[in-house]
Amino acid sequence: MNGDSGDRQISRYFERPGVQPLDDAAFDGFVDRLGHLSLNLRSGVFKHETGLRRIAKIVLGGRSRHSLLRARLTPFLETLIWKDPLAALAARAAVERHGIPVVVTYRPPEAVVASYKRLSWRFPVHQMAEDLSGAGLKGGALPVRDAKNIVEESAALWSMIYAELLSLAQARPDLVTVLHMDAVLRQPRQSYQSLFARLGLEHGARAERGLASLEERLAQKSKSDLPSGHPHSQDRNLNVVNSYWRALLSEEEVARIRARTEDVRMGYDRYFESGGAAAISMATAEKLAEPA
Questions:
Q1: How confident is the model at residue 34, as a pLDDT?
Q2: pTM above the 0.85 mark?
Q3: Where are the strands (E) in 117-255, listed by range?
Q4: How far apart are CA 116 and CA 47, in angstroms?
Q5: Helices of type H across 202-281
Q6: CA 216, CA 240: separation in Å to the nearest integer?
Q7: In this predicted model, what pLDDT tens digit does every residue of 58-82 receive, in sequence order?
């Protein structure tokens, strides 16, 4: 659901089904085409891309097209994993209208904001606030008081998205699982075993290869703790994805983020502390890691 490189029916970032231009019928049609692997994806060429990379994307397409092609070429495909942070505001419609299980990956606001700052990613937070009727914005505050401040904008974005997803997780624990990123980083095997069990997925040979690769990467150190400017860098140090913000954000920026996101963050703290079956936290992973 990327407004620049995704399906041609999607015209904006973070579309919310039921809100124009993506009404419920249009979203239902999109989900049907997704299930039949018949999406009409854009080339995935971004404005900043030039030269051979731009030509290659025009001819061959970007990551989304490659993922779609691999899915089409997978024999006896039974389960489709739709990984799409930009579909966060469509999660409720996916659950309520189509019964699609949703996995929410929880990352602390400082980590998310640092990523957006590092990559210079900007999003239409005023449009999103209007679509959500201000949900997730502390004290009904405007999404962004300083339109040039990417930190404030990103913190507001985090609050709106995670407030919406927490509300959904609390309302539909039967179909929504919340996975804490720290659990994945520190106890990957136990975290994914718990997740697969929740989703009713078989932990087969392919899943084991992927997990072994993740464990190998977590055991390695990259050349730098601070990721490159590429969002999909293969050389990044996975161990610090939730902590490298300390080298990128100023004290004033951290204070601004925490003031903006405090209420929603505390809501997740309480959610994980409750220890429900739908919450996969460090406590869950550590319990699974204990010898029988």
A1: 93
A2: yes
A3: 176-180
A4: 18
A5: 205-219, 251-273
A6: 15
A7: 666 677 888 888 888 988 888 888 8
The predicted-structure confidence for 142-183, as pLDDT tens digits, reads as follows 566 666 789 988 998 999 899 999 999 999 999 999 999 999
84: which 2 tokens? Answer: 């799409």
Q: Which of 77, 86, 93 is nearest to 29 (CA)?
A: 93
156 forms beta bridges with none
Distance separating alpha carbons of residues 123 and 152, to the nearest angstrom: 12
CA distance 93 to 76: 27
- Return the ∠ at Cα 236 (arms to 231 and 238), rounded to 5°: 105
Cβ partners under 8 Å of residue 216, min gap 6: none
- Give Cβ neighbours of residue 208 (< 8 Å, ≥ 6 apart): none
**What pLDDT score does 292 carry?**
47
What is the spatial distance between Cα 10 and Cα 115, in angstroms, rounded to a whole number?
Answer: 24
Cα–Cα distances (Å) from 136 to 41, 129, 158, 172, in that order, read 31, 9, 9, 18
Give the position of tokens 């150190």: 221
Of residues 263, 217, 290, 249, the one with CA closest to residue 111? 249
Please state, in angstroms and rounded to a whole number, the distance separating the CA atoms of residues 32 and 101.
15
Q: DSSP string of 86-113?
A: GGGGGHHHHHHHH---EEEEE--HHHHH
